[in-house]
Task: structure prediction
Amino acid sequence: MKSLVLKDLYNIGHNAKSMLFILVVLAVGLVPTSGAGGYMIMCAVLCSMMTVTTFTFDDMAGWTPYALVMPVTRREIVLAKYLVLAVFCTVGDLFGLAAGGVCGFVMGEYTVGPQAFAELAVLALAGWAVAFAMGSVAIPLVYRFGAERARVLLLVAFLIPAALCAAVYGLLWAAGVPVSEGMLTVLLCASPLLALVWGAAMYRVACGIFARAEC
Result:
C-alpha cells in the first residue's frame, strides 16, 4: 500500500513547481477579493484535483494492467488513490492556511490573536472537507469515464456535495432549527469527519466500478 501511494507522489512531483506558482498567483488575486477563507478552500480543491492527473500518468505508462498481475488487489489500488487524495488535500490546505493567513494578517483582515487563529483553523478544516468530498466523487468518475472525460465532469464532483449541504440546511430550516453561529462552527469543525464518511461511500462506489472494468 505504501508503495502505491509513493508511486503517485513521485509521479506528481515534477508538477509541484507549476502548482506552487499557480497558488502564489491565486493568493494575489483571491485573498484581496474573496478573503483568506476562500483562498484556503481553493488551494485545497486545486491540489485535490491533482489526483485525476495521477490517473493520466497511469494510463500513459500502461500501469494499471501491469499492477493487476502483481500481488495487489483492486480494492488496494482504489484505496491508495483515496490516500493520495487525502495527502494532496492536506498539503493544499496547509499551504492555503499559511499563505492565506499571512496575507490576511498583512491586509488587516485578521488581527493577531487566539480568535483569529481559531477562525483560520476552522476555515482550514472546512477547506479540507470540501476538497476531499469533491475528490472522492472525482475518483469514481475517472474509473467510469477515464481521466480525460472525467475532467469535463468535475463540475459534478462539486455540485453533488454542495447540493447535499444545501439540502441539510434546508431541512434544518424547514424543521425550525435555527442555524446559529455556534452551530455553524460545530458543523464546520465536524466537516472533515462528514467528508470521510462521504469518502468511504464513494470508495465503495469506485471499487464496484473498477471491479467491473476491463484493463
About this structure: Residues 2-212 form one domain. The first helix runs from residue 2 to 12. Residues 18 and 71 are 35 Å apart (CA to CA). The mean pLDDT is 82.
